[in-house]
Amino acid sequence: MTTERMNNEARVSVVKKYKKRSQMAEIWRRLRMNKGAMAGLVIVSVLVFIAVFADVILDYDTQVTGQNIMERLQWPSAKHWMGTDEMGRDLFARILYGTRISLSVGLVAVAVALLFGVTLGSVAGYFGGVVEDVIMRVTDIFASVPNILMGIVIVAALGANTLNLMIAIGVTSVPMFVRITRAAVLTVRNQEYVEAARAVGITEAKIIATHILPNCLSPIVVQTTLRVASAIISASSLSFLGLGVPVPSPEWGALLSAGRQYLRTNSYLTFFPGLAILVTVLALNMLGDGLRDALDPKLRK
Amino acid sequence: MHRYIFKRILEIIPVILGVSFLIFCIMDLAPGDATSVLGAEGMTTEQLAALRHELGLDQPLLMRYLNYMRGMLHGNLGTSYISGRSVVECYFERLPNTMVLAFASIGVAILLSIPLGIYSAIHGGSIADNISMVGALLGLSIPNFWLGLLLILWLSLGLGLFPSGGMKGPASVVLPAITIGTELMASLTRTTRSSMLDVIRQDYLRTARAKGTPESKVIWVHALRNALIPIVTIIGTQLGHALGGSVLTETVFAWPGVGRLIIDSITSRDTPMVTGSIILTTITISIVLLLVDIIYAFIDPRIKAQYAGGRSK
Question: Judged by CB atoms within 8 Å, which residues 61-120 of B form the interface with A?
Fold first, then answer.
């Protein structure tokens, strides 16, 4: 309680001092004061670093997929921090490399969903009428099938590989972006500056892109962060069910699924991949929650 | 009110038609058809063609969909390629098992989360609030199949408290219910807290206190009633999804529910079973959401008044 009051006082003095700062700087300042969000940001940055440089840190053929039967199923030790699997592969190396797969599946899926969802949502919100009705009814249909079932059906129909996994998770994420974007656009579209833009004869597409969407960014940014988190869970869930990234690539859900057979004797094979998913998702959720508070201070009590 | 319920039922129909068409089309993309499952290896091309004709598989997609719809109107969603049994029958055989898990986990989540969320809202910023919010964030972030496996590892294989899978008596409900319940609890606690926070500073509560209403009544009656709408929404959505079958939890615990039915049918390429179960799942979820909408009217007289609007009553 006292720390919060001190924070508030500090905030008041800082606001007085830097009143002329840009909006971005203000948001960044609010985000920086949120310990959870900053912890999330640091973890996410480290994970992105690992994902980008996975090739540099590890040699895929020898360290990640190379088998070494002599050292199979060894419990964690100084040599193998997270033990070895049934093929004698170092689990730590595989989980590190898995960061690249999980993050890229999450990011690509959400990017696809973002592209379609924001376009459809802004068109629905801006134009209204029949266009809106059609878009929203179709969205309702897609949204009424539980995400995981939709993902399962799409992967089963298209075949289990990384690209189809991205498509499946992307498709299941579209409805939420449509709804959020539409709701945000509805609050903006009747404002005077939009009318002014229309009066000077700017094209509709340009009005949406340059006048409407920039003012709808906060909810979209927040949802994107949170959605990457749930996309990573969905991707690992599908892989766990055998409907995702094919072996031998070290996707976390697939590692879990393989390790599950050794739950009784080598439980670390189940423990560490799940921990990797938990840490990643938790970090993204903390960052997302923090962004929400930073972008919309009214919600913060 | 009756008119409203009737209108909502009518609104469900296009969604169900849409979902069935969507799933029907997607499953049509799947490689292979009934003939690849029905043990047609030794058949000649002519025999295969005859079999396809007999099953109606040589017709165009739209015709097959219309036939399917005609069956659906009669409560017939086809028969399983594998067992030859009616899809509807198989689904309703599994549904009670899924319902047991759904109600057990939601019941526990409601009993624990609502008091916890209210406490957190009243004592905002306290240590207990921080702990429960961190806990809720953890609950939202933990992959439930992993949680299920850890529970098996520690409570079943380790301590031998509960069976590790299958459906054998009340004890076997505990671990899968905890697995599903964790996620429900997490989001329910967060929703209750934020919804209560919105209400708790309003003037009418101060008025109630000023009139000498006991604090417990102020919170549990005056505040909670107004905070209830978002809470009921979340419970309804969760119940719907839980009834849709928790594919992962049911897989981890070998629980014979709807989720397992769907995943097993996917694995064995039992297309009618997949399509039918998913349509039935969607119908189940739509009905639950309809009930939630009706419950709103009982919680919030303002909503009821809205529906009755226009008529003097």
Answer: none
What ipTM does the predicted assembly reach? 0.85
Could you give phi then psi for residue A75, rounded to 5 degrees?
A: -65, 160
Tens of pLDDT along chain B (313 residues) come to: 677 778 888 888 888 899 999 998 888 887 766 666 666 566 777 777 777 777 777 778 888 888 888 888 888 888 888 788 889 999 999 999 999 999 999 998 999 999 999 999 888 888 888 899 999 999 999 998 999 999 988 888 878 778 877 777 788 888 999 999 998 999 999 999 988 888 888 888 888 888 888 888 888 888 888 888 888 888 988 888 888 768 899 999 999 999 999 999 988 888 889 989 999 998 888 888 888 888 877 777 777 676 665 443 3
Q: Residue A77 corresponds to which tokens in the numbers above?
A: 């030790």
Question: Across the interface, which of A1, A236, A271 has its CB nearest the CB of B125?
Answer: A1
Q: Tell me whether residues B278 and A149 touch, CB distance under 8 A.
A: yes
* Three-point CA angle A52, A55, A56, nearest 5°: 90
Contact B18/A289, CB-based, under 8 Å? Answer: no
> What pTM did the predictor assign?
0.86
Contact B137 A282 (CB under 8 A): yes
- The answer to whether residue B145 neighbours chain A at the CB level (below 8 Å) is yes
∠ CA B235-B241-B247, nearest 5°, is 140
Asked if A266 reaches chain B (Cβ–Cβ under 8 Å), the answer is no
| Structure token digits, residue B244 | 């849709």
Interface check for B157 against chain A (CB to CB < 8 A): the answer is yes
Q: Which residue of A has its CA nearest to B143?
A: A233
Q: Is the CB of residue A228 less than 8 Å away from at least one CB of chain B?
A: no
Rounded Cα–Cα distance for residues A200 and A211 (Å): 13
CATH top-level class of A25-63+84-299: mainly alpha
- ∠ CA(A83), CA(A87), CA(A89), 5° rounding? 45
